[in-house]
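Co-fold these.
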Amino acid sequence: MATTASPARTIFRRPASTTGLWGWLTTADHKKIGIMYGYTAFVFFLLGGIEALLLRVQLAVPENTFLSAAEYNAMFTMHGTTMIFLFVMPASAAFFNYLLPLMIGARDVAYPRMNAVSFWIFLFGGLFLYSSFFFGTTDAPIGGNLAEEVGRLGSLPNGGWFGYAPNSGARFSTGTVMDYWAIGLQILGVASLISAINFIVTIFNMRAKGMTMLRMPVFVWMTFVVAFLLLFSLPIIAVALFMITFDRQFGTLFFDATAGGDPILWQHFFWLFGHPEVYILILPAMGIVSEVLPTFSRKPLFGYPAVVFAGAAIGFMGFGVWAHHMFSSGVTPITQAAFGLSTMAIAIPTGIKIFNWLGTIWGGRIKLNTPMLFAIGFVAMFVIGGLSGVTHSIVPADWQQTDTYYIVAHFHYVLFGGAIFGLFSGMYYWFPKLTGRMYNERLGKLHFWVFFVGFNLTFGPMHWLGLNGMVRRTWVYAEEAGLGPWNMAVTVGAFIIALGVLIFMFNWSWSRRRGPVAGMDPWDARTLEWTIPSPSPEHNFGVAPVVTALDDFWAKKYDSDHEGRAVRRSSADAMIAEMEQTGLNPPAPIHLPAPSYYPILVGAGIPFVGYGIIYHTSPFGIPLIVIGMLVIVGSFIGWGVEPLEEVHDDHDDDHDELPPSADGRAGESNADGTVETDGDEEDA
Amino acid sequence: MADHEHIPHPTPRQYVQIAVLLAVLTAVEVGLFYLEEGVEQIGTSITAPALIVLAFIKFAIVVGYYMHIRYEKPLVSRFFATGFIAALVLYAAVILAMLFSSNIL
Amino acid sequence: MADIAHADAHHDEHESTGIDSRKLGMWVFLSSEFFFFGALISNYMLFKGRDFAYETIMPRELYDIPFTSISSFVLLMSSLTMVLAHNALAEGDQNRTRTWLLATAMLGMVFIGGQYFEFTEFILEGMTLTSNPAASAFFMLTGFHGGHVFLGIVMLLSLYGISRRNGQLSEAQGLNLELVGLYWHFVDIIWIVIFTIVYLIP
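Predicted complex below.
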């Protein structure tokens, strides 16, 4: 295959550089893609954070005029949309990308270039969504000051992250801002769907020898569950977004109640996606915590199979609870009872996980490094958020609290106290693997405590603000309501969180260059990514690992004495030194996916189509769609004739030792690929 | 598992026979449609389930023989069946919830 | 689809399940498509029986069952020609492979042409995308299905073009043919469901 591809057959000359800017733009390396996901997500995190601060300044005092109603609507919409779709999801994808192949002992994901496509589509989708700031148009909301200019800030999408119809439909949302929202999310969904397929196939097919499903780290298991949730929930939101786009652009009547359409259908489709989505946000953090807690407690994870199956059960049951978001939307008593019960039931697997984490810490020799602090913070805050959440399965309580700040408090305890604490735990934990250096522990701990205090000051008082009747999504509240003092406290808390983020950014950028060299296995950890040098070499593993146990690396380092305590083997240090040598100097040449221009081109073509649809009635609408499609199709054609890897000249003389697979697919499948060839691999 | 691997794929002749069967099933479907239109006594309570069963048989034949799922490893059919059944159950639930809310409330 | 990276990037590794990665990926993708079409079909089912408070034409009043039966039959037979193309390639008969590929694409085009004719008729008789939610749902469901068929035709013709240009389909492209085949059959089974639920059951 590789030998048949001469440069003349490709549209562009193959990118040769793997360093510098072009190296990043054309890479197919899962680690680089993971890093790009991480940094992009963090930039969006800062944007979403700034939006949150603007909201909090507006709400700090009663009857404030800092933001107009239009701007406030845009800010809370973009804060939610950004944090969910542009921060937590891609930040989780960053961890998946970087760690998944390392943890299962693979060289890369199953489709390296598709992986790059996912990232670029995500990036251009995010930029498309935010380009509404420059191009979007809308009118001031009813109830606000109609004479007021909407302004640039108000020209961001403004229908809430849930985009409820008919508020987001053509009749009540004029202008184009919600088109940017609907099409932007559609593009982001494509990116997530591609990466979900990629991760599922990677986990099915790319595991190292001996890495059976029940020897995979919990983080990999949670990745697997998340990929399934994405796979089955994204098509639903895709249809819903197509419907709202058609309603807005082409005059269909799905959500127009005056024409017999049904806005409740939007709520069903949205939450059919939206509830699995909240597990998509939290399960990666649960996976991270399940790696961090055993490492810093110096004990194996308590009840590994229970944690895995509880994670799978959460994923499965996550599809059966969506209507609990709709208790106040006119669903019948039967529906309310059924979804109330299923909501109570989903607390069971979540509880199993909590107790397993506590069991892991119990009796361990705990080291309170920054990742561990964040992980413990995760467990504690997530329990608070989970408890305030499960009370809403009691339907009358939900009626009382829905659309108040009590709900805002609840989901920030699970998504900030949960998901984001978990993500920060992971960022500190894998920082040495990423950079080869150690972060500053004092600053890390300071970051945690600032975060912890700021977080609780921000979201704790929201519980009683909500119970006292403060409603969500409203830009002012009356002086007489008596909500002012606690709102001021909340705003102060929000700025304390911002301070924590600044400490983190300083620590990260300083330690990345000047931190002490960390070494290969600074945490004395358990999983495969710690068996390779830090920072991870481009080829991941010098020799493909063979796994014989759960927590294989730990089992190779430690024996247990007659009381079951871990005793470090005398050979452990020598083994690690040898691993580092093998990792740095692989004994046999390794072929890696070569860089390619096409993934970024595919991603760049997509926004053209999006703009073309929004402006399809104008003279440049159709040409934009055609240009976008040509770029996409042309890139795929170029891609189709470009082999995944090039034959490297410097490796030519090594080719004899490599089986024919260097040139073709020999031994893998014949033309129909199904019948005769697979038998011997069955027991692997 | 091993059994699956030794079943040879159908021959072109068998593929054509399968297509004839599919065509006949389609003809029966259309026939049922006209039966229900033309004959008063036969209501949709009979034809609708029959049509669904026929569609499912056609579905299974195409997936089993043309998509060769019978000859794949069980993982593939489990996966595909999971997707199909999960979608079926989920959307049945949505339709029920929607119909209830419009009839009762 | 001819573009998914090859699993042989990783010489010293194996496929843990024994199923080719690209094929497994296609199956994974197709199982998510159930949810896509499931949403579109449910959408139509929810609106098809509603009474709208204004004068309008429902899709049911316009169906031309003999016509749609024939185009359904055409799509069903394209599955036969697709599997025959696959079979011919497995037997190494490149000419026969090309013939059947082209036949499949042609049958697909006949189906799309039929859909174009059907849409035009409906619009002439006064039912458009914006007539009522049931009509919107009908056009959206069958339109997205038609879009899938169109994409399939493009992929079939690309395979045909590659085969004509190179004189043959290599082993790697043989897998592409199988993947396109899976996609094509899937689009066919979705139509089996649509034909029954949308057209035949009142």
